[in-house]
Amino acid sequence: MVTRVVLTEDEMPRQWYNLAADLPSPMQPPLGPDGKPLSPEMLAPVFPMNLIEQEVSQERWIDIPREVLEILFRWRPSPLHRAHALEKYLGTPARIYYKNESVSPAGSHKPNTAVPQAWYNKEFGIKKLTTETGAGQWGSALSFACALLGLECKVFMVRISFEQKPYRKMMMQAWGGECIPSPSTETNAGREVLKLHPDTPGSLGIAISEAVEAAVTDTTGQTRYALGSVLNHVMLHQTIIGLEAKKQLEKIGEKKVDVVIGCAGGGSNFAGIAFPFTADKINGAQIEIIPVEPTSCPTLTKAPFIYDHGDVAKLTPLLPMYSLGHSFIPEAIHAGGLRYHGMAPLVSQAVVEGLHTPMAIPQLECFRAAVDFARTEGIIIAPETSHAVAAAIRKAKQAKEEGKEKVIIFNLSGHGLLDLNGYDSYFQGKLSDHELHQDEVDAALAELKSLPKPAINRTGKW
Amino acid sequence: MEKFDREEGYCRMLGHYVPFNYCRTMKDGVPCHRILDCWFEKLPVKEYLQENYTDEEIAQILEPPRPKLASLIDLIEKAKNR
Q1: C-alpha torsion B8→B14→B16→B18, nearest 10
Q2: A379-409 pLDDT tens trace
Q3: Across the A/B interface, how many CB contacts are shorter than 8 Å?
Q4: Domain boundaries in chain A?
Q5: Which B-chain residues 29-58 have CB contacts (< 8 A) with chain A?
Q6: What predicted TM-score, i.e. pTM, was given to this entire model?
Q7: Assigned fold of A127-221
């Protein structure tokens, strides 16, 4: 009975997969405040041109540089697990597999893009990367990548996190990242805040401003900014997850996959597992591909596809996305990474096409699933990952009711060992569910009537 | 509401627990945009906002963050102008 499917280094994929090349309907371009499409050059002050080229690329396959592969080999290929214990617990005829991204040095899928981003910056002549972080998941992943590639890394960590959440700060320091509390005296943005509020605990908004300013104002031109989610090139780098998984399923003798599941936050971990299987679906395979979101913030399951601003002040560019509107305020949940009110454009377009079929799950069901998973498979997962586990359990139970031997795979995007307070709240009964009612959705959308409507590019095949 | 300042709640943006005082003052001395979202089940936050801020100010306070991609262009321009 095989429990853990591993690939050798030789078997690891040598190219990333770009879904943009195969989407049957074209992506809608992001628009500026003037209604005209944004140009890639507008991002040049913060990203190197080789990454911007990836951002807009229509090439199906993009080679993974040899130096990047050599670093990824340190924890990749990541194992594919067969969840025998969970299957037995559920009494399901389904075969459940999970791709374990918690085995990376930083404990999540984040290094899959941190490493190539650092490498492409280095190739472009960049010496230093800046970023922002809260508790430090992305900051630690980028520090790790920069350490291995010989780049400087400066992480603006929100001051209250810097003082109260020392573990990932220590991880960053161990990897040589310069982790400084934000606001700092190193940027005008930070100094302006400190002048007015010297005792401020900081915020992510200030930290982002500092990280961008540090990159933009470096007169040597050798500093850039790095982002760990949302953008197309981030999702491209994450496709290594699904590409490996396909090989592993083939290796174990699975000829057909029925269900592919990932939690849908900024899109990158879902894209990582889903996009390679989406290619198969485009080419005729019968696969149900499910981005999972919380019922309290159901952008994919209840929201329409529109052009939306990212802010109430309507200062930011219009983006085509599934959205409940820029003033929508979702109720409390603990899976912080899932709370964007809009979805990454590539995922949005795949949903429009019917290639992805989103599902919303309440947080209590997610935490129950996380606890069941810990007590069967043994891994304590991140709150975000619990959405994928809950969806896998739903589909496994459905297979049991239907008496079908379905093959289900989900992405275990990270461990939850530094996020145990969420579990504590669950055990103490402090969490509750909130499902958005249609009248709330309608109210949030009423103000969007005046915005331009993107053309619904859909072939109708799915 | 100061009497609740030591109450702790999970900040989903930062990824760890913070005292209520942080949520009440983190945005240049005014509340975080998610204060209602995070605390309405435990504390009378809505009443606190209505007692201390005008409707217009409450609307500004509760304004959600911009998606990172969309905000980058704006942040670049601001950084250049500083």
Answers
A1: -20
A2: 999 888 999 999 999 999 999 999 999 999 9
A3: 157
A4: 4-106+233-449, 127-221
A5: 29, 32-34, 36-38, 40-41
A6: 0.85
A7: Rossmann fold (3.40.50)
